[in-house]
From TrEMBL:
Domain Dynein heavy chain 3 AAA+ lid: 110-198
Source organism phylogeny: Eukaryota, Metazoa, Echinodermata, Eleutherozoa, Echinozoa
UniProt keywords, alphabetically: ATP-binding, Cell projection, Cilium, Coiled coil, Cytoplasm, Cytoskeleton, Dynein, Microtubule, Motor protein, Nucleotide-binding
Coiled-coil blocks: none
Name of the protein this chain belongs to: Putative dynein heavy chain 1, axonemal-like
GO cellular component, one term: dynein complex
Organism: Stichopus japonicus (Sea cucumber)
Length: 670
């Protein structure tokens, strides 16, 4: 059983390393306790351990002597100069065989590269502010890997070969340097090596200030050639066309200003991701364009770009599902993928552990289910058989992980500020060892001016002349740089940091645009209000003049109307006298009518009293009438001599009905 990085586990609070203690348990007792069956001890036989580790330091801890006593230690010393020369000279001379250059040039390139590497490893030592200044043979091999991307037959002379070699050294070593002092030291080192080893003037090797190499400028898309880019304007135009194409394809728009520093970083990222096992670690503060330039470089290379989408409930399970998706796509579909990951997306340090595994081995332990492993074996079987190997599970999975490692180009965007960055580099060494580092420095004057000019030109309210715009651009640059200088004084005097980032500069421009729009709106509102007031005054003056004319025209009519009014008043006075006389007559008649009404009321009251007295008798008569029946009528008719009451009642009814009485002879006359 092989265990790599044996001394990487962190120390616990009491100084022990639990994974190492677990290994030591088998070495002392030949087994482990079963976690499911409590108390059961499982012995394992026929096992040998082979472990590897780096010397303590830089995140690696000393291992306990109780574990070390079980091993036979073998120490691997630094490879000698002759061994390095033999390896890289064989590779480089094989590549140079297709060119007309002599073999001595290849040997000189290898010797100079080894000397530069050894000088850098002894002079550029890691410090707390430069914790990524760690170099190994991978960095030396990246120089030759970069040179082998070019076509050797296109190299016409020694300066063109040295130019390519100088460019690759800059990309491997200079791009990770943090300040101008270190970059100038490296520049002097390269000048010295070119002058001493090849007796060539440095200006002949690099006739221009900026040196660019890439494969994205050529018209032939199918056969891209990594070569020097001499036409910088054409290069910028190609980048702008790709940026426009990216904005048409994607919903998330990118508004980039491709100043010289930005184009350099695009070329560097493009160079990294076009290489097999090409991974990048982009170091810089927020807002420096690390993610945007990576998206542009991936689009230029026609690679698929993947970035996780953080959510509130995003956890380890979602993270491993995302990793599994891109790994299966890279391994089974053989697609080149750029995996963009930022330190702001690290919700758990286990994320970096998985990325460290992908960078180192192309695999994440225990990430695949059994059915997914079967699909991997079935997909890789014809590929392994075509290569002449046996289709064992180990060979199938090894071929798959090689594909994954080759096709996934991990681009990590991290901020170098703070202790947490240094701790992560110590805990996960593959972040430095397996990545090409590109340091994003603070924007130069040219970048600040380009961004400000582009930003101000997009403001529709800024319709001033070129002289005013240039003054505003210079003012923004001076403000940003003066704050940066004052921040250094602030740090020196009070030992407190105030970071001035490109994001601060963009916020400055944004605040200026917002204030400009606000003030323009206020001025526009005041102007409109003043104009409206003046328009009202002019309209009022016009209306007054018009009314004055109408008044003058109507003056005769007013005089005539006044005369008619006087006549009308006289007529009203006459009518008033007649009306008063009529009023007196009406008042007399009213008094008479009131008297008659009073008399009438008295008669009505008297009649009402009589009526009130008669009503009970009427009600009683009605009640008696309702109580009559046929027998009563028959009885009355049968009376020969009715009583007086009956007779009087019948006579009254006859009088009311108008029935005349019949005269009947009786006892008494009449």
């Amino acid at each position: 059983m092989f265990v790599d990085d044996l001394n990487m586990p962190a120390l616990e609070v009491y100084g022990a390393q639990p994974p190492i203690e677990l290994l030591r348990q088998w070495m002392d007792h030949k087994g482990w306790y079963d976690r499911k069956q409590i108390g059961a001890f499982r012995e394992l036989v026929d096992i040998n351990f082979v472990c590897a580790m780096g010397p303590p330091g830089g995140g690696r801890n000393p291992i306990t002597g109780r574990l070390k006593r079980h091993f036979n230690a073998l120490s691997f010393c630094e490879m000698e100069h002759s061994s390095k020369f033999r390896i890289f000279a064989t590779i480089l001379n094989s590549w140079l065989a297709s060119s007309a250059l002599p073999k001595e040039h290849g040997d000189g390139i290898v010797n100079a590269s080894i000397d530069v590497y050894q000088t850098i490893t002894t002079q550029l030592l890691p410090t707390p502010a430069k914790s990524h200044y760690t170099f190994n043979l991978r960095d030396l091999s990246k120089i030759f890997q970069g040179m082998l991307m070019a076509n050797a037959s296109k190299l016409e002379n020694l300066p063109s070969l040295l130019r390519l070699w100088y460019h690759e050294n800059c990309r491997v070593f200079q791009d990770r340097l943090v300040n101008n002092e270190d970059r100038e030291w490296f520049e002097e080192l390269m000048k010295k090596k070119i002058s001493e080893s090849f007796q060539t003037d440095f200006k002949e090797v690099t006739p221009t200030e900026h040196l660019f190499y890439g494969d994205f400028v050529g018209a032939n898309v199918d056969n891209k050639v990594y070569a020097e880019i001499n036409d910088q304007q054409k290069m910028i135009k190609v980048m702008e066309e790709n940026l426009e194409d990216y904005n048409q394809v994607n919903t998330a728009q990118m508004k980039l200003v491709l100043f010289m520093d930005a184009t350099k970083h695009v070329c560097r990222i493009s160079r990294i991701i076009r290489q097999p096992l090409g991974n990048a670690l982009l170091l810089g503060v927020g807002g420096s364009g690390r993610q945007s330039l990576t998206r542009l470089a991936a689009h230029m290379a026609e690679y698929e770009l993947f970035q996780i989408e953080l959510a509130k409930n995003y956890g380890t399970n979602e993270w491993r599902e995302d990793l599994k998706t891109i790994m299966l796509k890279a391994g089974l579909e053989n697609k080149a993928i750029v995996f963009l990951f930022s330190d702001t997306q690290i919700k758990s340090e286990s994320f970096l552990e998985d990325i460290n595994n992908i960078l180192n081995s192309g695999d994440v332990p225990n990430i695949y289910a059994f059915d997914e492993l079967d699909s991997i074996y079935n997909a890789m079987k014809p590929i392994v058989q075509d290569s002449g190997m046996q289709a064992t599970k180990a060979n199938l999975y090894s071929a798959y992980t090689k594909r994954v490692k080759s096709n996934i180009h991990t681009v990590l965007c991290m901020s170098p500020i703070g202790e947490i960055f240094r701790a992560r580099l110590r805990q996960f060494p593959s972040l430095v060892n397996c990545c090409t580092i590109d340091w994003f420095s603070e924007w130069p004057d040219e970048a600040l001016m380009s961004v400000a000019k582009n930003f101000l030109s997009d403001i529709p309210d800024l319709d001033e002349g070129d002289e005013v715009v240039d003054g505003l651009v210079s003012m923004c640059v001076v403000v940003h740089q003066s704050v940066a200088e004052k921040s250094k004084m602030f740090l020196a005097e009070l030992s407190r940091h105030n970071y001035v980032t490109p994001t601060s500069y963009l916020e400055l421009l944004g605040i200026f645009a917002k204030l400009l729009q606000l003030k323009k709106m206020e001025l526009k509102t005041a102007r409109n209000r003043t104009k409206l007031g003046l328009d009202k005054l002019l309209a009022t003056a016009t209306d007054v003049a018009k009314m004055q004319e109408e008044l003058e025209m109507m003056q005769p009519m007013l005089e005539e109307a006044s005369k008619e009014t006087v006549l009308t008043m006289e007529q009203i006075q006459k009518d008033t006298i007649v009306a008063n006389e009529t009023k007196e007559v009406v008042q007399k008649e009213e008094q008479q009518a009131v008297a008659k009404a009073k008399e009438t009321q008295e008669i009505a009251d008297d009649a009402q009293r009589d009526l009130d007295e008669a009503l009970p008798a009427l009600d009683a008569a009605l009640a008696s009438l309702k109580s009559l029946n046929r027998n009563d009528v028959v009885e009355v008719r049968a009376m020969q001599r009715p009583p007086n009451g009956v007779r009087i009642t019948v006579e009254a009814v006859c009088i009311m009905k108008g029935v005349k009485a019949k005269k009947v002879a009786g006892d008494k006359p009449g």
